[in-house]
Amino acid sequence: MLKGRTDSSEDSYSVQLKSAIFNFQSILTVILLLICTCAYIRSVAPSLLDKNKTGLLGIFWKCARIGERKSPYVAVCCVVMAFSILFVQ
């Protein structure tokens, strides 16, 4: 291989990896899915999330509380995100 030349498949893989990590819309989608999933799990089986209110697993309890208390706003954000993913991209 020539000095200074890299394989194009490695370059495309690293570009794809960087865009997935630093894509703001992907981060928002993951956060919305986490909030909706935690709120649903808490509505079906509240004991799973209520026993872990602090620590690392407390993040899921906090996401469930956000999903419950801000449900109209979360629903609007989910619809807007779905529209942008389906029709804008």
TrEMBL record:
Its main location: Golgi. GO terms for biological process: constitutive secretory pathway. It is a single-pass type I membrane protein. GO terms for cellular component: Golgi membrane. The chain crosses the membrane at residues 20-41, 71-88. It comes from the Eukaryota. InterPro entries: KISH_domain (IPR051523), Ksh1 (IPR009653). It is found in: Golgi apparatus membrane. Keywords: Golgi apparatus, Membrane, Signal, Transmembrane, Transmembrane helix. Belongs to the KISH family. Involved in the early part of the secretory pathway. This is Protein kish. It comes from Coturnix japonica (Japanese quail). The gene is TMEM167A.
